């Protein structure tokens, strides 16, 4: 696929050369048809509305099989509707079927296909679609290049996107705001925030000037990457150019400073919002409240919640859930429960995440009966527990030594199927059984889960059992399990650390060194704990 992509990029040069009059070499009837296609207006946006993709596909197939053949504009409109429903593979299949019937695309159709291939992760095919612009005598538009750049960025092909960008600019094609915004957004989402910043600076001397949206994209990327000084410089650059920051700008900056623990700077920015009378939304308040809670500044978080109400913004269930989580993180579960009850009294309906946080809080302090009562309350209120709810409760029951109750819940999940137990559920049970010196029972459970419940173990599953073998001084069993693991999974550094620790404990330093070389050969990077084990074993 990599070579196909590079080959297609080379073919793209053809679009960037002065276009030859390909129409002159086509039959008269074919030239006429192409000209008619260019002159045909698209139907109105509301021409087609479907309740489901099956209806859209049925209509498309019906039209394709019509005689005489339908307008490509009509078919393109249906394809566009299917793409808006995010059925990209379906649209690709229908387009291929249409071509096999001899129905020729036009530029909008090809743009849609580039978009589909981009979302499907098939950029080689997206680039090959560009050759059809030359083949049929169409000229790529700003939409064409924007769609192509978006697809490349979406698939992490940043160097390819920058290469094409350079070629397009070199041929005198002017990028518009949407094209620049697409490139900058793609760079930021791919972690290339500094490159995006450089592109933003380069725009200053060009026809298109950076707008608020572009600044916000880069400011947000810089803040998420922890490059707060660069973000502030860009913020002051905005002010110097007469671009007024909006709530999106301030939210990104406040988020960055809060998560860096720079409360003074975050407070100054918040005060600036108040002074400028910029309308603060609940999302911004929630970000700051969440950061305060994670820093154990619960009093300040509550004060900000009061400020929020005074400014006419009502806290939503997310706000209250954040506060509840803050209490639970500090083992203040009763305060979290009081807040939970107050929320219900105020008519705010708690969601599954609110319950999950409180259930986790109760389990953390070994009050599992209250956690179980909360789950029962969820059923009474028609709030369906999710896999996190069940796994949290199973984990809490295991840690409380109530393995039979935990297994009852797992069996209930298995037979009800909503939600079905996942690998984490079974790993919790395996971990408890191993840690309670019931290794043989854990091994039997592991095997029965694989054969009877189609359990697919992950690295954590194997690490639990390998650790169990080692703690029971059954090193041969641990090594055999490691070999079994190699059939489907790659061990991680934790796997090897468990084995190294066991070998060093038994003074088998030669085998430990051999295993260390194996770790290095497997391109697994030893961590600090690895070296501590080896030093301790000497």
TrEMBL record:
SUPFAM superfamilies: HCP-like. PPR repeats lie at residues 106-140, 141-175, 176-210, 211-245, 246-280, 281-315, 316-350, 351-385, 386-420, 422-457, 458-488, 492-526. Transmembrane segments: none annotated. The keyword tRNA-binding does not apply. Gene3D superfamilies: Tetratricopeptide repeat domain. The keyword Transcription does not apply. InterPro entries: PPR_rpt, TPR-like_helical_dom_sf. It comes from Arachis duranensis. The gene is LOC107462395. This is Pentatricopeptide repeat-containing protein At1g12700, mitochondrial isoform X1. Belongs to the PPR family. P subfamily. Pfam families: PPR_1 (PF12854), PPR_2 (PF13041). Keywords: Repeat.
